[in-house]
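User: hey, got a sec? need 2-iminobutanoate/2-iminopropanoate deaminase folded
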Amino acid sequence: MKQIINTVNAPAAIGPYSQANMANGILYISGQIPVDPATGKLVEGIEKETHQVMKNLEAILTEAGMTFKNVVKATIFLKSMDDFAVMNDIYASYLDADSYPARETVQVSCLPKNVDIEISMIAHQD
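Assistant: Yep! Here you go:
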């Protein structure tokens, strides 16, 4: 049975999708962009953007009763691979080195609202 996960501590969906869905103990989190849920405004600059995306993901994980330790897969979309090193350091700072998820990072030509980064995740209940 599918359960919709929704929190006011992450940006509301801007289209016909849910922030996340839980099915059979697996949490599928939609791609998060750097929108501050308190203001509804985009943050700018890859450092601030990456922190905001990770905070948004963390809020959704928390709503589902999970943490970054539950994440088994991450997909990162960057507008420029030149931002990879900065993003990677910030991304890693939110994770436990003993439980890094599988991941891919790809450069794309454009992202929603013309942001520099979007991250989606899949997590599993222990």
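Quick note: The beta strands are 2-5, 20-23, 26-32, 71-78, 102-107, 117-124. Let me know if you need anything else on 2-iminobutanoate/2-iminopropanoate deaminase.
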